Amino acid sequence: MKIFRNLSLAFILFFATLSVQAQSGNEKTIQIKTSAVCGMCKKSLEKAMAYEKGVKKSSLDVDSKMLTVSFDPKKTNEDKIRKAVNDTGYDADDKPATPRAYNKLDDCCRKEAGAH
Ligand SMILES: [Cu+2]
Questions:
Q1: Ligand 1: centre distance to CA 36 (Å)
Q2: How far is the CA of 69 from the centre of ligand 1 (A)?
Q3: Annotated Gene Ontology MF terms (predicted)?
Q4: What is the C-alpha separation between 88 and 90, in angstroms, rounded?
Q5: Fold of 27-113
Q6: pLDDT in tens, 16-51
Q7: Are 87 and 101 in contact (CB under 8 A)?
């Protein structure tokens, strides 16, 4: 009977792989390390992402500063999303914030402010 269990496991794996592939066709999820420091940063970044073309959903974890973004690869790409993060005033991985946007941030949201 063991072979049947292995077979059904193989089927489950097969269909799981299929569904992952179907999803990756029109949605991609990336993580971007940002310079966000507080809940206000979270709101501004998630709002900026909501207005960004091709972005389906986004979520920032303030503690780790990681911004998770799901997007449609046909409509946008990772560089455009990082640029949008920069234009909101935050670093995105190795790309620094756009100075003009950064200067518009509230004092508490600037990276020099540190955690609070
Ligand atoms: Cu902030």
A1: 6
A2: 19
A3: metal ion binding
A4: 6
A5: Alpha-Beta Plaits (3.30.70)
A6: 666 555 555 689 999 999 999 999 999 999 999 999
A7: yes
CB neighbours of residue 90 within 10 Å:
32
Dist. CA 39 → ligand 1 center (Å): 6
Q: What is the CA(54)–ligand 1 centre distance, in A? A: 25
What's the pTM value of the predicted model, to 2 decimals? 0.77
Distance (Å) from CA 80 to ligand 1 centroid: 22
Q: What is the pLDDT of residues 81-112, one digit of tens each?
A: 999 999 999 999 999 999 999 999 999 999 87
CA of 105 to the centre of ligand 1 (A): 8
DSSP 107: G
